[in-house]
Amino acid sequence: MIATITRGSTQYQIDLANPIDISIPLVGGKDNVNAWYLEPPIIEPVKTEGFIGKVAEGGSVNFNMVHFNPHSHVTHTECSGHITREVHSVNRHLNNYFFWAKLVTVAPEKIGDDFAISAKQLEYVLDDKSTEALIIRTIPNVEAKRSKDYSNTNPAYLLEEAIHFLVDHDVKHLLVDLPSVDKERDGGQLASHKAFWNIGGEERSDATITELIYVPNTIEDGMYWLNLQVAPFENDAAPSRPVLFKILET
Ligand SMILES: N[C@@H](CC(=O)c1ccccc1NC=O)C(=O)O
């Protein structure tokens, strides 16, 4: 199922039948990805007087409650509402769903006790071309990222200067396989989040950050067509499923 996308005078082709899902799904229990010191998510059948929402236990339907936090337990996309006094819903602010995206692989640098991505590293991988969406896969890239509990592990993050570099290059949608673009314990500064949304200046309210993605090693760095949508939650963040389509050689 080949689709043609026209950009300026150039035509690109993608195969809609070959989507590359780079989300981490939510599965109830302790093997789920986790961050921010929360208990694992729970998926459990509704039980009321004379009813159980589980067919295997005699119920007429499977009818589960799902207890989770989008920032901790699943690939999620967030808008500036994550850090502003005003309520902003990602479901309203993300209202385009297709973007040109560049996938890059970066090994965060050791900076003191931390690992972080610098502006220089992004300069190196982004070259001169701007891209609406940037997907950062960090090294080491292990399958265990899909079930890791990041709480108290001081995960890698992006330096504020790296975010300034992205904003200068008009990157509107940033996707990372980390739990945050900021340091786990930064005293509430959130410097990279603030820089990305230009808090205090002209807010970049259509910009989004997607965290906790997982890009398998079999997917090559390069340009992709990205479909990014959130589950329709009116909240600062919502579960999302970024899907890539390879640009076919023509
Ligand atoms: N680093 C912040 C905490 C933080 O960033 C955070 C806390 C809970 C849920 C999400 C968070 N950041 C997500 O990007 C702090 O130390 O206060």
TrEMBL record:
Species of origin: Flagellimonas meridianipacifica
UniProt-recorded Gene Ontology molecular function terms: arylformamidase activity
InterPro entries named among the record's database cross-references: KFase/CYL, KFase_sf
Name of the molecule in the record: Kynurenine formamidase
GO biological process, one term: L-tryptophan catabolic process to kynurenine
TM region(s), chain numbering: none
